[in-house]
Design goal:
The chain is of the alpha/beta class and 755 residues long. It folds into four domains: 199 residues, no CATH class; 100 residues, 2-Layer Sandwich (Beta-Lactamase); 155 residues, Heat Shock Protein 90 (2-Layer Sandwich); 130 residues, Rossmann fold, CATH 3.40.50.2300. Helix content is 56%, strand content 15%. The chain is built from 24 helices and 17 strands. A five-stranded antiparallel β-sheet has the order 2-1-5-4-3, with helices on both faces. It has a five-stranded mixed β-sheet with strand order 7-9-10-12-11. Helix 1 runs parallel beside helix 4, helix 3 runs antiparallel to helix 4 and helix 4 runs antiparallel to helix 5. The protein is rod-shaped. The C terminus is likely disordered.
């Protein structure tokens, strides 16, 4: 069976079922209406009977003496007949009609009583009331029941009454003293004639009632269906209204409607927040307008004029002034609503507070600028370290070698000191650019701060009071202790310079947790547990403009020559390279607080042990393969190592060094000293090939620019020996002996590692 046929049959069955239901409901309505009509007729006849009873007594008193003989006393006998017989006929049926209306027995009882009451009235009047009139009228009233059975009962009573009274009191029936068969037939004919018409009327009336019932049920069904549709539509409208109201109220964008003059008429919650109001009442009381500024502001008038001309404005960025005087940056869009005549009825639009977004964009642009400068600084520092390595190395050679009286030793010392100062500057550049080599240890910041206490007090002077608040339950961190000291030193110096007339400087440590909300406001931060190091002063403070550029390299508010502008940039670089973040809070005339956050670690705390260097340089006689792409540094290394007794083989790059290893045999080389980043083949690839030839070969890496190389290719593995450029001859000699004398297969932690 095809789907259309199945659907047709299903619809037909549903229609038949619906019609059956409607017919059943119509029959029920019809029966209920008939019962109510019959109950009402019962009450009508009950009242009518009582009225006729009283009328019978009245007629018997005043009319019977004029009609009937036999008045021998002051009261005619018919009065007693009317009183008692009429009461018997009227009272009990009337009570039944009042108490049990609508019942079949009640209807028949009242019909019989009505016809008997008619006979009594006719009798007491002696036929003065036309018999047919009263009988026909009573039968017509009984037809109100719409019940043929009741009508037939009443007809039987009429026939019996006529028969009996026709025999005993023909005058009361026929109006003559003797009965006449023809009069009996005539009366019977008229009664049957009326009853026939009343039966047809009852049937017609019942059919009409049934049709009315069907129409009523159909109308009620249609009405119910219509009401159901109205209810469903109303519910849909309510849900739609609720949905749009929720969409309006909960929208992240500010949505509003404004009058043609710019007054805000309707606004959602986000719009109230943008304007700086807590409620609609507050907004209306303040008379809020577009842009949140007074009507006299020309910006508002200009905006309204542009809207009237163009009809709409999209993604316009402006500054809104709030009632508290603060200003927010807002991206707004408007549209003018007009009537049929083109007159503006209102403005509708959206507004988004983009203050934080713009601040984040500015921070991002600032960080991009700082990163670009850092890349430049790191590259310069890398190349400069190679030059400084040569200068410092040759200065050491001149100082250590005798027989150089033609070159004053004091001047050579000055050359070395200048080189060391330049090396310190390159370290700051590398720290700022986060490309320096860190030597992290697991420690507690309290130890670092405590060890620096006396030095810091001498550094700031007696006019500044230093107070330390070190948390007792401080967590461990994995940082380079020397770099942390550099951070503390720079922050303390910055605080000292902010208090030229003296003041109070506080150094605090504490455990801290940075949550999602903090990191949302500080994009550089990562959620987690940290140890905070705070340095606070009650000095001059900073303006917002200064705070915005605080960590820029070479930015300084000090006089020319009083600072390099790298101190705070160095702090920022060290903290970031250590996996932390740094923030600043300052108020002009109140003071400043720098807070550096270092991530915690669960590793065991290492003991910091200070080592002393011997006066003489470490020497040896092993064979060293020196690989360096910078000629100056390579020549210095060959000269320095040779002067220390080592046999030196040099190579300009990894490929050349690998060729020498293959020709000479890896076992003949005691130590491989190689730069990390070189053309053709880098240090890590060279080390991998060297260990393939000789698995136990000792290797020492050296570079002036290591972090970027590690970041790009993981060039230095954990446990690798590393020597940062620039270095002195003493450092070079000690590091070579450390590597040569250590087990070749055991990784060395601590200062020798590059993590």
């Amino acid at each position: 069976m095809t789907a259309p046929v199945t659907s047709l049959l299903a619809n037909t069955a549903a229609s038949v079922a619906q019609n059956d239901t409607l017919e059943a409901n119509a029959q029920a309505w019809y029966q209920q209406a008939l019962r109510e009509l019959q109950a009402g007729t019962d009450r009508f006849f009950a009242k009518l009977l009582l009225g006729q009873w009283i009328a019978a007594i009245f007629l018997a008193q005043f009319l019977s003496p004029l009609t009937w003989a036999g008045r021998t006393s002051s009261v005619h006998p018919h009065v007693w007949i009317a009183l008692f017989l009429g009461g018997l006929v009227a009272v009990f049926p009337a009570l039944s009609g009042f108490r049990y209306p609508g019942q079949t027995l009640t209807r028949h009882t009242l019909a019989i009583a009505q016809m008997l009451m008619s006979a009594l009235l006719i009798h007491v009047t002696g036929g003065r009331i036309e018999t047919h009139f009263h009988v026909f009228g009573s039968l017509a009233f009984i037809a109100f029941y719409r019940d043929i059975r009741v009508l037939l009962t009443a007809t039987f009573v009429v026939a019996a009454d006529h028969f009996l009274r026709g025999i005993f009191w023909p005058q009361s029936v026929f109006g003559v003293l003797t009965a006449s068969p023809w009069r009996t037939v005539e009366h019977a004919f008229w009664v049957l004639f009326e009853v026939s018409f009343l039966i047809m009327a009852i049937k017609r009336s019942l059919e009409e009632m049934l049709q009315v019932a069907r129409r009523q049920i159909t109308l009620e069904d249609l009405n119910e269906a219509m009401e159901e549709k109205v209810r469903a539509r109303t519910e849909q409208l309510r849900q739609t209204e609720e949905r749009y109201r929720t969409l309006f109220e909960d929208a992240p964008l500010g949505i509003f409607q404004a009058s043609p003059t710019g007054e805000i008429l309707v606004a959602n919650g986000a719009m109230l927040e943008v304007m700086g109001f807590s409620s609609h009442e507050e907004m209306r009381a303040a008379g809020a307008r577009l842009h949140g500024v007074p009507a006299s502001n020309p910006t508002v008038e200009e905006l309204l004029q542009r809207l009237k001309v163009k009809g709409q404005l999209s993604s316009q960025e402006v500054a809104w002034q709030r009632p508290d005087g603060s200003t927010v940056r807002v991206q707004e869009s408007f549209k003018a609503l007009r009537d049929c005549a083109g007159e503006i009825l209102s403005f509708e639009g959206t507004a988004e507070d983009i203050t934080q977004r713009r601040e984040l964009e500015e921070r991002y642009l600032q960080s991009q600028k700082v990163q670009a400068i850092g890349q430049l600084a790191g590259g310069v520092a890398h190349d400069f370290n190679n030059i400084l390595t040569a200068i410092i190395g040759y200065s050491d050679l001149l100082i250590d070698k005798g027989g150089l009286e033609s070159v004053p030793r004091a001047q050579v010392h000055e050359i070395k000191r200048a080189s060391e100062r330049a090396a310190s500057l390159t370290q700051q550049l590398l720290a700022f650019s986060r490309k320096q080599t860190l030597l992290p240890r697991v420690l507690r910041l309290n130890t670092v701060v405590s060890e620096m206490d006396q030095m810091l007090r001498r550094l700031v002077g007696e006019h500044i009071q230093i107070q330390t608040k070190l948390a007792s339950d401080i967590a461990a961190v994995k940082v380079d202790p020397g770099q942390v000291q550099q951070v503390v030193m720079n922050l303390v110096v910055n605080a000292r310079d902010a208090m030229p007339d003296g003041g109070k400087l506080t150094i605090e440590t504490a455990n801290a947790t940075l949550d999602e909300e903090y990191c949302r406001l500080h994009p550089e931060a990562v959620p987690g547990t940290y140890v905070s190091l705070a340095v606070s002063d009650n000095g001059v403070g900073m303006t917002p403009e200064v705070r915005a550029r605080l960590f820029e390299p070479f930015f300084t508010t000090k006089a020319v020559g009083a600072g390099t502008g790298l101190g705070l940039a160095t702090c920022h670089g060290i903290v970031k390279q250590s996996g932390g973040t740094i923030s600043v809070y300052s108020e002009l005339g109140v003071g400043t607080t720098f807070r550096a956050y270092f991530p915690t670690t669960r590793e065991s705390v290492e003991e910091l042990v200070a080592t002393e260097r011997s006066a003489s340089l470490s020497s040896g006689s092993e064979t060293v393969l020196l690989v360096e792409d910078e000629p100056m540094v390579r020549e210095l290394g060959v000269l320095a190592l040779s002067s220390l007794g080592y046999r030196v083989i040099e190579a300009a790059n990894g490929v050349e060094a690998l060729n020498r290893l293959e020709k000479m045999g890896a076992d003949s080389i005691s130590l491989l000293v190689t730069d990390v980043v070189m053309p053709e083949m880098g240090g890590r690839e060279l080390a991998r090939h060297a260990r393939r030839l000789h698995p136990g070969m000792r290797i020492l890496f050296s570079s002036g620019y290591t972090y970027d190389a590690i970041e790009r290719g993981d060039l230095l593995e954990h446990g690798t020996y590393f020597l940062a450029k620039p270095y002195t001859m003493a450092l070079l000699a000690d590091k070579i002996r450390e590597v040569l004398e250590s087990p070749s297969t055991v990784p060395v932690n601590g200062a020798a590692t590059a993590n």
